[in-house]
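Hi everyone, sorry if this is the wrong subforum. Our group has a chain we'd like a structural model of before ordering constructs, and none of us has done structure prediction before. Sequence below.
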Amino acid sequence: MESFVTTTSPLASSSMLAPYITEADKAHHHAVFGSDYSAPCAWYVRGIDSLGVEEEQASLKKGMIQEKIEKETLMIVTLNDAVCSPERARIGMQAGVEGGLAGGKLAVAEVSSGHWVMLERAEETNRILEMFFEKGAKAFGKSELRPSL
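Answer:
Right subforum, don't worry. Here is the predicted structure as tokens:
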């Protein structure tokens, strides 16, 4: 990774890391968002540094939030995710949704994609979302893995 970062030019790496992003996409993105990624990266920093844990525990005690998600929940697992492995994602969601897969509230869709599934596989992601919105978790069955649509 160090070699890649120190020897690869931004122009060359952009075609390898995100070939689906056009020059027009980049220009539009920077016109709208600039080049400051501190806000979206704060989510990762919060998780890694366990920021907000005390506040969440206090909210649980006060009954302001539930310990587990009680609504039907869709998780799209990406098979080539360098940030969060599919196994780690499944373990976390199984623990966080009431009843997990066995309870019928957790729907899992598996997609051959990297971390940014909504960009890398936009049409497939939209089909999965439509299926979940129209039919709920039952459309995905109770199996732990669901093949790509």
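For your construct planning: The helical segments are 2-7, 10-17, 23-33, 38-48, 53-61, 86-96, 117-120, 122-135. Confidence is low (pLDDT under 50) at residues 144-149.
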